[in-house]
Amino acid sequence: MTRKFRSSCSLNFLFQTVTNGVCLKSSNVIGMTFTATVAVYNFSYDKQCPLQVFVRYSLDGWRSHIEIQARYIRSHPQNNTDIFIFSLFLPRSMPVGAKCEFALRYVI
Question: What is the pTM of this model?
Fold first, then answer.
């Protein structure tokens, strides 16, 4: 499996995180497992419930999708962000040239 995408956060990570609320911070592919970290901007310290981050992904051009929840790993108080991690375990039967597309969302 090869990774082909552009992270909009690579040049100015903090600006993109503040502007968009969420940003793909880093990623790695090992075999058929795609693992990534996500930064989410803390818009409010007075949260009623813990922040949640979800990853919705599709293997068929969004005709169907699967949604998983990312796991909180740490807070960065100096830049007011929380960091989450997720892994997508892709099927070994994926044809050559097939795509995995994903979108991030967060709930405050």
Answer: 0.81
DSSP 60: S
Candidates 16, 37, 20; CA nearest to 28 is 37
Q: Identify the three-state secondary structure at position 16.
A: helix
Cα 31 from Cα 1, distance rounded (Å): 7
Tokens found for residue 3 = 């990774």
The 10s digit of each residue's pLDDT in 35-50 is 999 999 887 665 555 6
Q: Cβ contacts of residue 15 below 8 Å, gap of 6+?
A: none
Q: What is the pLDDT of residues 49-81, one digit of tens each?
A: 568 999 999 999 999 999 999 999 998 888 888
What 3-state class would DSSP assign to 1? coil
